[in-house]
């Protein structure tokens, strides 16, 4: 399914199924909607679950720009409006979490709740440089899928699995669906900023979920939950940054009670 986002950008939308209230899934930088497949399976108990590949990611259009925050938030609004999902529960991981709270702050009429998964609200000033160095070190093309798993899963195997899903195969190997220049352009608009003042505008119920072993500071995320007007915090044990891959059961245990409180289950487990 395609939806036209901000500035005419075509977005690849995945309808995971379910009936009733809308639930919108927003992936992180480098990701795509498919990263949410396991989570979507149990979320369909609570409503219609939809995800989409962000601009420059997955199978969505990859324009030269814009990749600023208004573009990302505008794309979410376009999907919500096109599919009639409002008032929607938004679940966002990392960059998707940033989009989730900015969407809730800018358009409270569209959002009934947010789940913000593993992002530091105070982004380091050297973030773009660190990513530029990291991206330059990717041995593209990867000869095989196993090489993708080994490269990205050197420290945590599940992170390798998440990167397998954002690669495309060709006769000479495997390449990322997102282009480095677009990833860096996206980072430029949220690196080196203190986003904590934005949180006061989020009036709906909000859940901040952190991975116990994440490189995103847990204390900052706990503080974020305290700054949200109707915020709460959950910690997923034995999980790093990609917490819904690292500990799927722990992730579900942290998120499902919040979802259930907003939307009673409509289907059996």
TrEMBL record:
Annotated InterPro entries: AB_hydrolase_1, AB_hydrolase_fold, Carboxylesterase_BioH
Domain spans labelled AB hydrolase-1: 23-250
Xref: SUPFAM superfamilies: alpha/beta-Hydrolases (SSF53474)
Any GO molecular function: catalytic activity
Organism annotation: Micromonospora chaiyaphumensis
Pfam families on file: Abhydrolase_6 (PF12697)
UniProt name for this protein: Pimeloyl-ACP methyl ester carboxylesterase
């Amino acid at each position: 399914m395609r939806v036209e986002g901000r500035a005419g950008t075509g977005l690849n939308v995945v309808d995971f199924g379910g009936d009733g209230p809308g639930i919108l899934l927003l992936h992180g930088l480098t990701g795509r909607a498919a990263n949410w497949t396991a989570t979507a399976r149990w979320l369909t108990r609570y409503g219609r679950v939809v995800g989409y590949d962000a601009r420059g990611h997955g199978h969505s259009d990859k324009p030269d720009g814009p990749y600023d925050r208004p573009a990302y938030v505008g794309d979410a609004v376009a999907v919500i409006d096109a599919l009639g999902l409002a008032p929607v529960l938004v679940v966002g991981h990392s960059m998707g979490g940033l989009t989730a709270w900015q969407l809730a702050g800018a358009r409270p009429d569209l959002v009934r709740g947010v789940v913000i998964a593993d992002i530091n609200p105070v982004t380091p000033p050297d973030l773009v440089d660190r990513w530029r160095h990291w991206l330059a070190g990717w041995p593209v093309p990867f000869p095989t899928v196993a090489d993708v798993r080994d490269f990205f899963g050197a420290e945590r195997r599940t992170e390798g699995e998440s990167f397998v899903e954002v690669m495309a195969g060709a006769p000479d190997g495997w390449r990322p669906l997102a282009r480095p220049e677009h990833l860096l352009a996206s980072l430029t608009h949220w690196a080196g900023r203190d986003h904590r003042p934005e949180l006061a505008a989020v009036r709906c119920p909000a859940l901040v979920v952190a991975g116990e072993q994440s490189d995103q500071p847990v204390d900052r995320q706990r503080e974020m939950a305290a700054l949200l007007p109707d915020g709460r915090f959950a910690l997923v044990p034995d999980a790093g940054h990609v917490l819904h891959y690292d500990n799927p059961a722990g992730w579900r245990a942290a998120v499902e009670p919040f979802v259930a409180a907003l939307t009673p289950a409509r289907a059996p487990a």
